[in-house]
Amino acid sequence: MLSSQKPKNEKATFAAGCFWGVERVFANVSGVISTVVGYIGGTTKNPIYQQVCTGTTGHAEAVEIVFNPAIINFTKLLDIFWQCHDPTTMNRQWPDEGTQYRSALFYHSEAQKKVAWQSKQQWQQKFTRPIVTEIVNAGSFYPAERYHQHYYKMHPRICLR
User: Fold this and answer.
1) Active-site position among 18, 53, 84, 159
2) Is 53 a catalytic residue?
3) pTM for the whole thing?
4) Which of 40, 73, 92, 131 could bridge to 87 as Cys pair (CB 3.0-4.6 Å)?
5) DSSP assignment of 33-68
6) Using one digit for the tens of pLDDT, what is the confidence trace for 88-119?
């Protein structure tokens, strides 16, 4: 008997500079169910924006994406990730500078980890400088304050990249 169950939605978490712009890139991708901006990869529990901006929490600004793998797979999301920022710059994207703006992939399964490493190797061939993107276990994700969520919709001129 064939299973008629739909594939379960999955999560992907990407840090690629200011989370407003990254969320804007992924929010309208077909197959993306939802996006939440927040903080991940640090040691401070329940950080707030002002703490993350100091660079002392270890957290990156990131977007957590829930997606339907029957419509878009993780590999395609990775392709968008590599193209939406410069993964060869350490702790910097556009005018934003600091560890909170680093390039990082936070995987949610061993399968995602494997695909992320393969994707990084493939994309490295397209860059002349080394990709500095971290690939690390997702761990705890802390949603950012409400006023940061879908910021690009409220302030479209600020988030033009």
Assistant:
1) 18
2) no
3) 0.90
4) 131
5) EEEEEEEESSS-SS--HHHHTTT-S--EEEEEEEE-
6) 999 988 888 999 999 999 999 999 999 999 99
